[in-house]
Amino acid sequence: MSDVRTEMAPIFVGIGGDSGSGKSTLTTAFYELLGAERITSVCLDDYHSLDRRERALIGVTPLNPRANNFALMEEQLWALKRGEAIAKPVYDHADGTFKPPESVEPNEVVIIQGLHPFLLPGIREAFDLKVWLDPEPQLRIRWKLQRDIAKRGYNEAQVLAEIDARRPDAEAHIQPQRAQADLVVRFSSPAEDHSPEIGDHLNVRLTQRHSLPQLDLEHGLDNGTTVRLRNDIADEDGRQSDVIEIDGRISAEDAARIERSVWEHASERHHHLHHLRQRELGSYEELHGRRHSDPLGLTQLILAHRILSAQKSLLVRVKADDYAAISHRLASSRVSSTETRE
Fold this sequence. Notes:
The chain is an alpha/beta fold.
């Protein structure tokens, strides 16, 4: 008898975007919503092939494909997809050097975030859900300045010079990946507010391509004022999409009502989703400490629902000496099927 075992593969979620686009901030809540024990997270910066000093010597930015080991990235991501542990490289942003590899094992949800998740077909085909973060440019620059100065030891002039040096590579290799995403998240400043601390009032636009099934909850989101749903429109990449728009001025009461609606739908389908109070979602770090944003919280909750609703792949594990027999049976089945149609 053949030793064939079928099981569900991890839900593979790719979250991409340019440097400073908010990838880490967006995903923080998933650990609370889903449970840290259910998540494996991999940062694609660990697959840089050159350290900071080497990149400076030859004048290459991390956004350039030449500065990344895509062969190892593809090999290890598919190993995780098969349920196998990997010895993942480690890149330390604090000093721009590599540290010893670490062992990583897949869990129910594997979140892959970085600059290049959708650049190559061999990698992007691993994902069950592809999310792209596309904040307005000035907002992203502000976020990158805050992060790199506070956490990576740069000064403002160095960060701005780096942004300028990276621009050609961002346009050539990063921005085109947006067209490959299933869902695009765009944060933007309210038109009338350009103050330095507006993170709690940012507008959000969730563009859901028709590569995603429509969730039932989306019909209950539109209140016609601060949350709007538009169906079947052509987005900026020319793809048919549904769009959820969340006004940064949404009141706490409206946000709470919509969160309850999402929780009702999510709880029916995902019994292990941890119910968080409103203030526990939408937390982010600003210059003067942690703050709260209802639009961010709603976005995180909708995305968590999307992640758990993603179509899982099947893993079929077969003994090597049984593979030929199974392949023969599959081929015979295809021949019989063809003869029946004819």
